[in-house]
Amino acid sequence: MTPKTNCGGGGGGGGDHRLVMDAVVKVFCMHTKPNFSLPWQRRKQYKSTSSGFIIEGRRVLTNAHSVDFYTQVKLKKRGSDTKYLATVLAIGIECDIALLTVSDDEFWEGVSPVEFGILPALQDAVTVVGYPIGGDTISVTSGVVSRIEILSYVHGSTELLGLQIDAAINSGNSGGPAFNDKGSCVGIAFQSLKHEDAENIGYVIPTPVITHFIQDYEKNGAYTGFPILGVEWQKMENPDLRIAMGMKSDQKGVRVRRVDPTAPESKVLQPSDVILSFDGVDIANDGTVPFRHGERIGFSYLISQKYTGDKAEIKVLRDSAMHTFNIKLGTHRRLIPAHSKGRPPSYYIVAGFVFTAVSVPYLRSEYGKEYEYEAPVKLLDKLLHAMPQSKDEELVVISQVLVADINIGYEEIVNTQVLAFNGNPVRNLKSLASMVDSCEEEFMKFDLDYDQIVVLRTKTAKPATLDILTTHCIPSALSDDLKT
Fold first, then answer.
1. 85 near 108, Cβ under 8 Å?
2. Which residues of 45-62 are buried (b: 16+ CB within 10 A; e: fewer)?
3. β-pairing, 177-179 with 125-130?
4. Which residues are catalytic?
5. Measured distance CA(362)–CA(408) in Å, rounded
6. What is d(CA 417, CA 356) in angstroms, rounded to the nearest whole number?
7. Rounded Cα–Cα distance for residues 289 and 283 (Å)
8. ∠ at Cα 278 (262, 237), nearest 5°?
9. What is the maximum span of the chain, computed from C-alpha positions, in angstroms?
10. CB of 120 closer than 8 Å to CB of 10
């Protein structure tokens, strides 16, 4: 997997762009990120600059990662010396888009909103406009569309339609618009490829994804996300496999490997079903569907065009018989979430044992950017392959032990999953906290992964917690979300 990094940029020429350039703004953001390793506190605040642009309805679009964990967002127009305070209306983590507005009327004076154009074709010229690092004035870069495919979106760990362009990309260009030669916006710059063999490759969020985000917000008053089919599937390119699955020579499709038990699809789809079509579009043996003239694209594109709660018709081959199902599409919930969606992390402390729920930001905080190589194999296996068995299931670990007399001998335990408490399975952090709080047995026994156990005497362990919190300047034994 080639690393892609959040940033933005890239572009190509033609047309009178001077008017549309006035709609491009510079975004100043102060961020205060949670400290996932010490979940009761926040990290030192830092500032970032990026780009954005004005659209109709007195709104501004930029990237979600430009305003992640924001405490203050300000916007500056081209050629102006004033920064205006902005309000964040919606953040779309999966599609890396954020919607802002400004209450000051002066900000909107003399600017025409950007208009959206259709999805460009290969080799179409694009011009990306923004405020890359290293200058206060607007920067224009040119290029052409070199590829259109389902891309991995770094910020939300999702797969959505994206444009690849051959233009130099610089940090700070994030959130800037990409214009076609008619001056219509065809996308938002959002990440670049960092690889020793690749130069000048940038990525743009295309208009279908932007339109989906805006319409979702307008329809629901909030961002609800992109639906997903809660299945893992396998290609059916091998002829012997197709015959064994009872497929006729003219039938094509993909085999269902596993179905997420928490997804609505789990009521109708089964492992080894062959999905033949989605909403009347036939799926090929390699999982692609036709896309424009002479192009093919992964069938997840069809799903991402829908909205959460929409119905979809799925044709399935099961035991050589055809079935048609109408499925209500939901958003997907991972056992180890890719993002905390702006919320502070949950934690619970008893006798110096710090319990928390595992998420990707937590793994990144503990093991750095290379967490996919550094984290314990058991946690990575859960991250990549485990499906939640219930809607509220979390992976609870002892993240560290704050050393005290009460927990002597347990100091080495770090990032180890808690499976059960006094014989009862631990479903999530809240259930563990309430079981410990209400425990009246003589001993508290925690069953951990790797067949380890932690045993504490109840009547001494609970009172010891307060002293440990005082020593470490921790304001509370549990996070606010567990108090309700």
1. no
2. eeebbbbbbbbeeebbbb
3. antiparallel
4. 65, 96, 174
5. 26
6. 10
7. 5
8. 95
9. 79
10. no
- Give the start-end residues of each E strand in 436-484: 443-448, 453-457
**Tokens 């793994």 belong to which residue?**
363
Query: % helix / strand / coil in the chain, to the nearest 5?
Result: 20, 35, 45
- Give burial (CB, 10 Å; 0-12/13-18/19+) of 453: exposed
The number of helix segments (H) and strand segments (E) in the chain equals: 10, 29
* Residue whose tokens read 């789809």: 269
Strand pairing class (87-92; 158-165): unpaired
Tokens 């990094």 belong to 5
How many CA atoms lie less than 13 Å away from 96 in the CB half-sphere? 31
Residue with tokens 């000048």: 200
Q: What does the block give as tokens for 484?
A: 């309700």
DSSP symbol at 386: -
Which pTM does this prediction carry? 0.90
387/266 Cα distance (integer angstroms):
12
Exposed e or buried b for every residue in 102-136, given b needs 16+ CB within 10 A?
Answer: beeeebeeebebbebbebbeeebbbbbbbbbeeee
Per residue of the chain (484 residues), give pLDDT as tens.
444 555 543 333 334 556 788 999 999 999 999 999 999 999 999 999 999 999 999 999 999 999 999 999 999 999 899 999 999 999 999 899 999 999 999 999 989 999 999 999 999 999 999 998 767 888 888 899 999 998 888 777 788 999 999 876 677 888 999 999 999 999 999 877 666 665 678 899 999 999 999 999 999 999 999 998 999 999 999 999 999 999 999 999 999 999 999 998 999 999 999 999 999 999 999 999 999 888 899 999 999 999 999 999 999 999 999 999 999 998 878 899 988 888 899 999 999 999 999 999 999 999 999 999 999 999 999 999 999 999 999 999 999 999 999 999 999 999 999 999 999 999 999 999 999 999 999 999 999 999 999 999 999 999 999 999 999 999 999 999 998 8
62 token code pair: 């930029």
Q: Which residue has the tokens 């026994």?
A: 445
In sign, the C-alpha dihedral spanning 217, 127, 183, 207 is negative
**Neighbour tally for 394: CB within 10 Å:** 22
Give the pair of three-digit tokens for residue 302.
């069809």
CA distance 96 to 132: 18
Beta carbons of 49 and 172 less than 8 angstroms apart:
yes
What is the SS3 assignment for 32-99? CCECCCCCCCECCCEEEEEEEEEECCCEEEECHHHCCCEEEEEEEECCCCCEEECEEEEEECCCCEEE
